[in-house]
Amino acid sequence: MSQRVFILYTWLTAAAWYGFILLLSMVPDLDVTGTQTDWLVRSLGYALMYGLLFLLLFRALLGTVRMRIERLRYYKSRRERAEDNEFAYLTEFLLFIIAVLFTLLLSGLDEYLQTGVRGRVGAVIDVIVNLLGIIVTAVIAFKVPVVTELEELLFKNETEARRTRSKKS
Q: Of the candidates 83, 66, 52, which has an alpha carbon nearest to the alpha carbon of residue 153?
C-alpha cells in the first residue's frame, strides 16, 4: 500500500467513525429506560467511542507527519533511531496533544448538535465523560505505543523496498 493511499485511508476511517458517532447522537429519545443505569451505560459507550476516535485521529496525524517530515519517514536502524529519538518523541507528543484536543473539540461539537435533536440535550457533563474516555485511551496509548509500533511495521516494508530500488539505480 502506498503511503498516500494509507494516509487517505487513515483519515477516511477517522471521519467514518466520527460520522457513526454523529449518527448515534442524532437518534431522538435515545433513553431506553430513563434511569441512571441507562445514562451510565450510554456515557461509557460514548467514552469508548471517543477513545477510539482519538486513536484513529492520532494514527492519521502521525502517518501524515511521518510522510511530510523526511526525518520521520523512513524506518531506521537502532543507532539512527537513537540519534533522532528526542526529535521523534517531541513530535509524537505534540501530535498526541493535538489529537486529544481535536477529539475533545469534536465531542463538544457533537454535544452542541444534540441540542437540535428532539429528546436530546447537549450537556457539559457528557463532554467531560467523553474527555475521561479520551484521556484514559490516550494514557494507555502513550504508555503502550501500539499505534507508533504498528505504523513502523507498515512503513518498514515500503522503506526497505525504496532502499533496494535506490541501490539498484
A: 66
